[in-house]
From TrEMBL:
The chain crosses the membrane at residues 89-110. This is RNA polymerase subunit sigma. It comes from the Bacteria. InterPro entries: Anti_sigma_zinc_sf, Znf_put. Residues 117-155 are annotated as: Disordered. Pfam families: zf-HC2.
Amino acid sequence: MSRVDHMDVAAYALGVLDEQDMERFEEHLATCWACAAELETMVPVVGLLSDIDEESVTALEQTHSNPVLLDRTLVAMRTHRRKARFRQILATAAAVVVFGGITGVVFSNLSDGGTAPPIAGPPTAPLDPPSTRPGNSGDPGTGGNLQEGKQVNVTDPNTGVKATFFLVSKDFGTNVAFTLGRLPGPRECRLVVVREDASTEVISSWSVPPGGYGTNSNPQQLALAAATASKLDDVKHFQVQEVDGKGVGTPLVTVPTG
């Protein structure tokens, strides 16, 4: 195979021939097994084009008129490919070593009954400082997330029902979170808002099981939440009532807002 033919094989594989020369070479290729075999060896070179820059592409175009430059370019590209693959092998080996070392430490600690070393993760938001507000052990949020708002603790002297309310003024009205204890059952109850103008509104209702809440039979207190459209300044007090079969309410505990 002549030197010119060799140059055409490389130029054709790299796509730098003009349309006329490409047609000429394809006609020649149809009858020349040597050029066909040479073209097959040039196929891997095409895959390297994605790894070279504009200057390298310009150098490849110059191989059409300079066969010596072609040889140098091909040698450089093959060398680049070998180096890139060698770097990839080194990186893979390093990753295996590092991962293997970490895995070894983890399995070693686990086999010794220890715990795995901490793995770095995204920073977490700082926790809010604990509230210094005093409260009872049965208050909502005790031992967990503290409730916001004005806290009112009341124990009715007649019924013995114990209530803790948290009142928060909102744009929509007033938010109420409350717990009830010393509340025997079974019975039906409701929470009533009594406004300054003496009007009332039922904002919650519930059933009390036979064991009650906050009793000897069931020490767990009842925790509920409700809301009213009434502004806190317009509320005189909240009242927990027992409701009989006719819907008549009897006060169990009254919680003032002032």
